[in-house]
Amino acid sequence: MLTFFGKRLLQLLPTLLFVSLIIFLLQHLLPGDPALVMAGEEKDPQVIAQIRAQYHLDQPIPIQYLYWLNGVVHGDLGESLRIKQPVLDLVLEKLPVTAQLATIAMLIALVIGIGAGVVSAVKKGSAWDYGANAFALWGISTPNFWLGIMLIFLFSVRLGWLPASGYVSLFEDWRTSLASTIMPAFVLGNAIAAILMRHTRSAMLTVLDSDYVRTARAKGLPERTVILKHAMRNALTPVITLGALEFGTLLSGAVLTEQIFSIPGFGKLIVDAVFNRDYAVVQGVVLVTATIYIVLNLLADIAYVLVKPRLRT
Fold it and tell me: What is the mean pLDDT of residues 68-84?
């Protein structure tokens, strides 16, 4: 098992290197000249030349990539052209906000999605099954921006229970922080829960028809043990993959939801960087996002082994 994990870790390095190369090359396809942006309105040729020399923009693209990669390896993602702040500091400032939102959303999605999927499969053809499928159809079909606006109208405007927008850190006031993130987290988790429900139901129906489940029932095991220990555990493999990818999507920034609820997270950071042609921020944020996806895939592989012990051999 250690050999397997060692090989997976070694595969991360060339993957990250390839991703960094793609990010750097695609960045140069964007219109505009970063030297002209940094030079301001006057665009003094002497200042532009100085900026090009300072940021190695006068070098060939392969040399620029090596300079940038060397900085990334040493923890330097560059400096924001707009606010003159290190990109790493911006990432460390915004990522915890989105991480909190994504974690709560994922917990909501897992509890509702897996629970509804298991009940729907076990109670196939019943009212519970039809209700769970109706919920999944509603969750997939409902636009996030519309659901967010409706929740604000109901719980903030009409009832006054929750704040309509804004964000407070957990370290400042955890109650206010949860109150400000529960609505956007539900908006994000709602759609993911619907997808998880459909995958869980499909996997559970397949597993419940398998020989080892029939054998467990023939032995006289309690139905709860058969479902939770034998069936559900083996049905979680596709759910783990989907959950890891969806969690990576949430961490990369829920742009519309963060805009609706005025949450200063990762999504707002990348949108502002693209509109302001802040190239260093775009590169840094996309690289961090890609790294998150790769690490989550590794964690999903580890979860496979924990869920299915036979894979350890």
Answer: 80
What are the φ/ψ torsions at residue 79 (nearest 5 degrees)? -130, 140
CA–CA separation, 39 and 57 (whole Å): 13
CATH number of the domain within which 185 lies: 1.10.3720.10
- Segment 250-295, tens digit of pLDDT: 877 677 788 888 888 887 788 778 777 777 888 888 888 888 888 8
Q: Which residues are registered as beta bridge partners of 79? A: 86
Extended strands (E) in 155-284: none
How many residues in the chain?
Answer: 313
The separation between the first and the last C-alpha atoms of the chain, rounded to the nearest angstrom, is: 7
The sign of the CA dihedral 300, 306, 98, 9 is negative
pTM of the model: 0.80
The answer to whether residue 72 sits within a structural domain is no
Q: Which sign, positive or negative, has the C-alpha torsion 190, 192, 194, 196?
A: negative
**Around 53, how many Cα atoms within 13 Å sit in the side-chain half-sphere?**
6
Supply the range of the domain harboring residue 198. 101-271
**Is residue 217 a part of any domain in this protein?**
yes
- Asked whether residue 74 is domain-assigned, the answer is no
